[in-house]
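Components:
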Amino acid sequence: MTEPAPRRTNRTKRPPTIHDVAAEAGVSRGTVSRVLQGGHNVSPAALESVNAAIRKLGYVVNRAARSLVTQRSGSVAFLLTEPQERFFEDPNFTTLLRGCTTALAEHDIPLILMTAGNEPERRRVTRYLAAGHVDGVLLVSSHSGNPMLEHLREAELPVVFCGKPLGQRGRIPYVAADDREGAKDMVRHLLDTGRRRVATIAGPQDTPGGVERLYGYREVLQEYGIPVDEGLIAVGDYSRAGGEAAMVELLQRVPDLDAVFVASDLMATGALAALDRAGRSVPGDVAVGGFDDSPAALAARPPLTTIRQPWDRISEQMVRLLLARIAGEEPATVILPTELIVRDSA
Amino acid sequence: MTEPAPRRTNRTKRPPTIHDVAAEAGVSRGTVSRVLQGGHNVSPAALESVNAAIRKLGYVVNRAARSLVTQRSGSVAFLLTEPQERFFEDPNFTTLLRGCTTALAEHDIPLILMTAGNEPERRRVTRYLAAGHVDGVLLVSSHSGNPMLEHLREAELPVVFCGKPLGQRGRIPYVAADDREGAKDMVRHLLDTGRRRVATIAGPQDTPGGVERLYGYREVLQEYGIPVDEGLIAVGDYSRAGGEAAMVELLQRVPDLDAVFVASDLMATGALAALDRAGRSVPGDVAVGGFDDSPAALAARPPLTTIRQPWDRISEQMVRLLLARIAGEEPATVILPTELIVRDSA
DNA sequence: CTGAAAGCGCTTACAG
DNA sequence: CTGAAAGCGCTTACAG
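Structure:
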């Protein structure tokens, strides 16, 4: 009557193990494992009885044990290297995060959210990744000179970027919306609706969106035979305040502008405020085009004409590329088309 | 010369193990492990040489192995049971998510993001949690009748809610802003600045914010000796469109209202649009008070007077409570004060 | 097709 | 204070 006390945590019931399943099904643990791996080299009879046992017992594989032997974690990191404020303020990114979570869940892969916005965080994340705690990383920042990149390379971890990685040598897989074509669509729209002095508020020039959307602006002007006036170009930091300041600057420099293509909706709401204060009506005096089709675009007065990025498909493709990389496939790149959404501001 | 080929994944270098550290330090693996656990019952000399070896080798513990023996995952889930759109559109929640990630990182605990907005997702999440893949969960939805709750209870997993869980028996630990007091501050502000026909657009009545903020509204009117006119109360669904519809309804029912307390900034932007279309000036004809102090509050025209929720502290406290629960402490509750932010709309 | 066995990298009583 | 050893729950050659 003095049995050794069973080992217990504060959880009452221990989940069934592969051992229980094997006993229930009347086979060896090896066979159960083979069924778990896809059922190759398993007789139909064994397959069936194992599956029945799994259902009956409600068996779920213990990932820690599997991970220990396979040297695979079975999870993926979603890594933010932006200063956090910027990311979390940007509704695009939350859409992206949601999409990646869902897409990974379909493969039963948990998403681990990590931030590396400052030095201590970067150290922690680097250690975590180097220790092999994830099989790959979905990387969101595309600022050039990203200090995490070197670490990732050293850890030899599969990575997929959101947005074209700037200033990187080698082939780094990424998924991006077609920023340049999106910008071109917007500027064409402005021109086609009769605007002639079209300014632009570009994003930071160390980000792909900042660079590409400005390229698009220039290309369309050229296309229409309009000489590019550098005075019509201002740069913001993707924040609302940055957009506001840039608009003030533009108004001062080029009082007769009649349209502005703003590289993000958030900046566009700032531009709207500046125009309002300057007594310019939108779209009467000045047409305003945004980029992103974020909630802010709808909430703005007037609602913003903007460029929609296909975030659902971006996240889907990021996950697809990452899983392919993890499986050993070659790096690839996916560029997805954008869509012009015409509302009241232009 | 025929050594067995070393086992390899596609990663080149295998991280050092506790075995390597023990060899380097000249002690047993047990001693290394004891150092890892906090260094109790370890001689100063051993402690030092083990730490030196850890540094030299860049050793990082293998969580899968640890988890296998301790029966603890060392990670925590951040679980969204809202229909996803709502969550990800709400900037409060992303702030919360960020805060929780950071707070957990300080304890070296990875945050696993999970969504359970529909039935297949709920099944998957339930299996994952029941399998013991996380030590606890941070739960965000507070809609009453949440179908995940029962599963969590069955799995005997520590849980902390964000927001007061409605209609739950038993003591469930939660952290919330003081919704009622926040609402009272706003309504008092409206009344103190001379408004007399103060309407409200409440949130859904199956959410704590929806209920509590409406309570606050009623209480202040009573406090000021103003009889509550039920016609002045409308309910929205926290969306922009819902706020707009509710405002239209109120305007129709009570054309002479001169203020409205809206239970979220997002709904308030909708209300602003409706007022604009009805030709009412804000704050001239109608004062508008929001709730949340989200980015939308700043972007709104005019910028919204609103109630700020202390999201940083909320996330911090949620993590603290959850870790305490995991460590076996009793359930507790934390209510945090809000702050009135006066801008232009009221 | 299947079982027995080794081993993944840790932690934790148990002796000493 | 410390080492030897068992064991956590899996996967995977290896024989058969």
